[in-house]
Fold this sequence. Notes:
Layout: H1 13-20, H2 34-55, E1 69-73, H3 81-86, E2 90-95, H4 98-111, E3 116-119, E4 130-136, H5 145-154, E5 156-167, H6 171-182, H7 200-209, E6 212-223, E7 227-231, E8 237-244
Parallel strand pairs: 1-2, 1-4, 2-3, 4-5
Antiparallel strand pairs: 5-8, 6-7, 6-8
Amino acid sequence: MSDATVTAATIDPAGAAHFGRLAADWWNPKGTSAMLHRLNPPRLQFLRAAVDRHFDVDPASFTPLAGKRALDMGCGAGLLAEPLARLGAAVTGVDAAAENIGAARAHAATSGLTIDYRVGDTEAVRGEQFDLVVSFEVIEHVTDAAAFVRGLAGVLAPGGLLLLSTPNRTPLSRLAMITLAEGTGQIPRGTHDWDKFLTPDELTALLADAGLRVTETQGLGFSPIRGFALSDSTALDYFVSARATSIRPE
């Protein structure tokens, strides 16, 4: 697939352009993507625990995803795709912004990692199958959440695991992520549209409509002392893990 601008059913061109402008600074832990760097430890904590349970692998293993294909949908410049590769997976990363894919490829090359990066949305991997499909903090940026979930479900291999995270649509998330974080420049202005945030019930329903069953919901919280950490509360942000039901919709 070409690295030219991609137009697809779930891509918001303005959103892709917004994130593309941040590409050069994506790997700077003190830059415009600093919040994503702070998010990565709890993301990886949730992912690793979910992988160990689902695939019944040794929690002490350094490569629990060896022999498995993993998809990072909405991969940005590779903050999650690279750890997935280090966990042993054959990784495909897809992002709507060509600038992000360029930055991701360059960083992977300097890190000695082989990752299949592509520009686009779920159409970029249509017809393929992945043991693990991950899409963290992405669904709130697409134009059609239901179509996006169907696309993810369509490439999930039998017995595979789907992991998502997204902000909840609550007064807390509006205050914390938009009024405070975007208002003070901790997150670039215009990153979020609160009206597009999904509640856990809404996301669970979208997954069910796509033939997937939620097996776990885990909150993500923030405190000035601990920073971002896994939480019992889903009021700010949350993760879900899901697997295919026995019968999927056509």
